[in-house]
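Assemble and predict.
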Amino acid sequence: EPEVTQTPSHQVTQMGQEVILRCVPISNHLYFYWYRQILGQKVEFLVSFYNNEISEKSEIFDDQFSVERPDGSNFTLKIRSTKLEDSAMYFCASTGLGETQYFGPGTRLLVL
Amino acid sequence: GENVEQHPSTLSVQEGDSAVIKCTYSDSASNYFPWYKQELGKRPQLIIDIRSNVGEKKDQRIAVTLNKTAKHFSLHITETQPEDSAVYFCAASSRGGSYIPTFGRGTSLIVHP
């Protein structure tokens, strides 16, 4: 069964550094999403992406964040200047024509 | 925007007992309600979902009920097993270009053997 994949599984960075989180959605899916989950808390929506542009974003997704689909398979989340509070698990998800979201395994980001 | 409340935050049951997790939502336009199971350190995985044109849906030991008038929906797990232990998240969403679920805070279910 096809799955969403994410790299890296863990990322440790210094505050102020840029990080890029990578995702490969399921190949025939149309909508792509990034979510964040701070340890022990609920999953929070960051941004959705459709037809090569952002379709919706939350208040968390400020100017420090950007997304890109650089080629036909990858979907990336960039954090320009990381803060301590960006430490979290970041999940990518994708959907096809229906509503069901398929989540990737996540990238655990630790900002020191 | 949508607001989803989920209760209880933790639920401890004996193996074989039933478990019920309840959620309420605020946006009457929400019409899709998925439930996700998240094991420790793993991704959320969809276990069951229900759409607003249906009041109940069952899949083996798992069932979900929806009361649109009261804006609440519940997850029922019967004959619980230790491998059911996980965090369960409810969510509510509506189509506005894409389904973007608003998640509840999660219920940590512990099934004691």
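The CA atoms of residues 15 and 39 of chain B lie 18 Å apart.
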